[in-house]
Amino acid sequence: MLVELSLKQKFLTLCGITAAAMAASLAIGQRLIPQSILTGIVFYLISGDRPATVYASIVSLPRDLRTAVIFLKLNLSLYRYERAGATVYQIFERVVARHPNKTAFLMDDGRLTFAQVKQLAERTAAHFYAKGFRKGDTIALLMETRLEYPCIWLGLSKVGIVTALINSNLRKETLRHSITVANSKAIIVSTELAGAIAEINEQDGIKGLPVHLFRTDGADASSSDPLPDAEDLRLSVDSGSSSSNVDLSGIPNDISPKDKLVYIYTSGTTGMPKAAVITNLRYTFMALGCYYMLSFRDDDIIYNSLPLYHSAGGMIGVGSVLLCGVTAALRKKFSASNFWTDCIRYKCTVAQYIGEICRFVLMTPPKPTDTQHSVRLMFGNGLRPQIWPQFVSRFNVAQIGEFYGSTEGNSNLLNIDNTMGAVGFVPNFAKAIYPVTLIRCDEETGEIIRGQNGFCIKCKPGEPGVFVGKINPKKALNSFVGYADKAASEKKVLHDVFRKGDIYFNSGDILVQDLLGNYYFKDRTGDTFRWRGENVATSEVEGVITTIVGLKDCAVYGVDIPETEGKAGMAAIVDPEGKVDMEQLAAGIRASLPAYARPLFIRVLSEVPMTTTFKLKKRDLQVDGYDLAKIKDPIYFLQSNGTYRLFTAEDHETIKSGKARL
């Protein structure tokens, strides 16, 4: 106790010196950091009875002070915009006024300046208002990445029309569902995707589709027109005004920051896509959040090869352009082999990634362009810790801004200090204004564990738990608007978490926090399974196998075994060339994984069942299981000596009968 007290006394002196120095040097404009923040930091630093807490406080002090300053700037900007009632379109107008002739978007050999983006948006707004569309209406946008993509939904937002950003890869029933679940009154479709709309429009029994169809350009003269009744939007907009000035006087100025802006859909890996509601305020927070926290520069050029209907590409990437004034280089479809070539061509200084993009790029053969680029920062989510050091070393990327979050959620994290493997952090002193935490759960089922008092139990450092965020509708940081489907929204909300009446957003993800406040992704609830009395985190097994097989796509999931408790592990590896060496794989698995975590089955896939956000469709693979009647791919079966051999029909029957000794 005497030693601990002495340490605290010394540390308190250090705190006083540090706080004084920081207060003297860290000024924002002409005002110093508020005394309340410094006081909170000092109390945070000297709190706790254990030396470990004091150590963690010292180590994280520079990071946490820097974060406090940036966070204050972000919140001041959000407060000013919200107080002024500024919508995304109105903030964009301020950006245009600052530099109208600056390039906003680049793609192939084309470009749009900020003034040109505004002009196209205004013409779109005027045309649809003249057509009778009004605030609160929804229009579905089905289009591959083009320069005009953000201009269309931006123009609709000026009227108050909500744009449903439809995944351009959807077809048939899933496409019809995405259009109708948002109550769309019209569809804007590009020519190359017109056939997808025609297909569902002609199906018998398909009801509820909008009757208003707009095509973004004329029909291809070399083929029959699948939508002969669709209006040519480009022709209509261009003919609506030949001058740069568009008459918008009739459009009411009654849009608020809390009004809906767009619908962005979940990836649909476990069912039909859900339309997440994105308000003007939510969009502003996400765009400004990355801009401030990752210290973007006004002259940055962001390489954005992500789909624009997705939150990363369309909200964070495009939002940085519209609301912050940076430039973005777009690509119609991601290409691993052209990633750095494009970055060099467009002189990009920042690049985005999602899912497995970094691994795809790392799999390309080494070439001079690997380090001839000017990219200093890459940001996104999904960079596996197993390849993180190899990626930054080979491509000479100074900073990785890995973030965590969902399209609809209020629980977002961002790694701003290059902590390898971390998805972000929350300083202890910031938990009052950004109340996110981990709560105990059953890792296999995802069911929340409550204490004897009926409330949830917070996890300790190092203890896995479900990541949750307190919902406060009055704050952009903590609000949760949910989905177009209210029933789906309610499923994501937890009630009476730490006290009666409080509500929290349930992310459905299992994370771990260390003593310094860094968070690490562990697994999705429901993905973790239990085998031989132990919990198996699929993401960890996937990381090991991916490394062994040369960065090939891999998905790990649990499958039921008759008459056996828990679920056995099964791995699906994409290997169309048949290059995976099963002996080498087995040896690597034995060396890297405990017996309970080793997959009982390995399926070698000839094609990639992947979503457009670069995630393997694990649910489909799990439904197939190891049923040889459904699967034509070879399946390998784990032997008692740790090797794998081909799984046979006889093996299948033995397992089905419950006689297998596993």
From TrEMBL:
Protein purpose: Acyl-CoA synthetase required for both the import of long chain fatty acids (LCFAs) (C14-C18) and the activation very long chain fatty acids (VLCFAs) (C20-C26) by esterification of the fatty acids into metabolically active CoA-thioesters for subsequent degradation or incorporation into phospholipids. The transport and fatty acyl-CoA synthetase activities are genetically separable and are thus independent activities. Esterifies VLCFAs in the peroxisome matrix. The VLCFAs are actively transported into peroxisomes by a PXA1-PXA2 heterodimeric transporter in the peroxisomal membrane.
Domain AMP-dependent synthetase/ligase: 92-425
InterPro entries in UniProt: AMP-bd_C (IPR025110), AMP-bd_C_sf (IPR045851), AMP-binding_CS (IPR020845), AMP-dep_synth/lig_dom (IPR000873), ANL_N_sf (IPR042099)
Membrane topology: Multi-pass membrane protein
Domain of life: Eukaryota
Record's protein name: Very long-chain fatty acid transport protein
Keywords: ATP-binding, Cell membrane, Fatty acid metabolism, Ligase, Lipid metabolism, Lipid transport, Membrane, Nucleotide-binding, Peroxisome, Transmembrane, Transmembrane helix, Transport
E.C. no: 6.2.1.3
AMP-binding enzyme C-terminal domain location: 540-615
SUPFAM superfamilies: Acetyl-CoA synthetase-like
Enzyme class: ligase
GO cellular component assignments: endoplasmic reticulum membrane; peroxisomal membrane; plasma membrane
Principal subcellular localization: membrane
Subcellular location: Cell membrane; Peroxisome membrane
Pfam families in the record: AMP-binding (PF00501), AMP-binding_C (PF13193)
Catalytic activity: tetracosanoate + ATP + CoA = tetracosanoyl-CoA + AMP + diphosphate; a very long-chain fatty acid + ATP + CoA = a very long-chain fatty acyl-CoA + AMP + diphosphate
Similarity field: Belongs to the ATP-dependent AMP-binding enzyme family.
Species this protein is from: Anopheles farauti
One GO term (biological process): long-chain fatty acid import into cell
Gene Ontology molecular function terms on file: ATP binding; long-chain fatty acid transmembrane transporter activity; long-chain fatty acid-CoA ligase activity
